[in-house]
Amino acid sequence: MRGTERKLFKLSKLSGYFAACAAVTAALVMIMPVQVKAQDLNLSNGDVTISTDGSYRIYQSDPSPTTNTISINCACTVSLDGVNILTKAPSSGMHTEDPVPNPINITGSYAVTIDLAAGTTNTLKSGKDISEKKYGSSGMAAIRVPSGATLTISGNGILNAYGADGRNSDNFSGSCNHGGGGAGIGGNGGLASTDGHSNQPFAEA
């Protein structure tokens, strides 16, 4: 083989080698997963409403109990990083004039994952019921999971979830109200009245 032919042969081999490397590199680029950083949300700044699919980290710059709440309106992953929620108690038996929110409310049939950040304690507590015995009232769930929704809880953190007790009223204007308690994780309590003012079931389905 003459010198010129030897050079062309070597160049051809090198060209094939580089082409193979490029193909492997392209394949690696295609199969590498895309890492999406979770969006940070500070619950100390106010209520958090999530309406776009994605990953979210919720934390509090002020660790003391807050009345701010979390509403989830989509399928998503939420990392709780040391939240401490204590919602207010209702001011009326029927919750109509002053609705009481859940600490965390999944508002529809969404698949939601709650991840508990390692080394954190997350406390969700629904406010205790009104003290006036003449009213009956339903308790609210700490994490409301309505019918059709799915909730997966993962992670190595701690979760304390307390639903509020319901209250049965004393005889008031010829009626008696019976309030159901809210779940730690699940449905809100219902309210039933002997005079037909309310026919809610004692708990959400």
Task: Name some characteristics of this structure.
205 residues, five-stranded parallel beta sheet, 1 helix
Assembly category: single chain
- Category from helices, strands and their pairing: alpha/beta
Rounded to the nearest angstrom, the radius of gyration is 28 Å
Question: Which residues form runs of ≥5 with pLDDT under 50?
Answer: 7-11, 17-33
According to DSSP, the number of beta strands is 15
Instruction: Please write the string of helix (H) and strand (E) elements.
Output: HEEEEEEEEEEEEEEE
Basic shape: globular
Head-to-tail CA distance between termini: 85 Å
Beta-strand content estimate = 25-35%
Q: How much is the average pLDDT?
A: 76
Instruction: Please give the order of strands in the largest beta sheet.
Output: 1-3-5-8-11
Q: Specify the helix fraction band.
A: 10-25%
Descriptive overview:
This protein has 205 residues and is α/β, with parallel strands linked by helices. 14% of the residues lie in helices and 29% in strands. The strands form four sheets. It has a five-stranded parallel β-sheet with strand order 1-3-5-8-11, with no helix packed on it.
Topology:
Elements lengths: L2 H29 L7 E4 L5 E3 L4 E5 L10 E3 L3 E6 L2 E3 L17 E3 L4 E6 L4 E5 L17 E2 L5 E6 L2 E5 L14 E3 L5 E2 L4 E3 L12
Parallel strand pairs: 1-3, 2-4, 3-5, 4-7, 5-8, 6-9, 7-10, 8-11, 9-12, 10-14
Antiparallel strand pairs: 13-15
Q: What would you say about this model in short?
A:
The chain contains one helix and 15 strands; from the N terminus they run H-E-E-E-E-E-E-E-E-E-E-E-E-E-E-E.
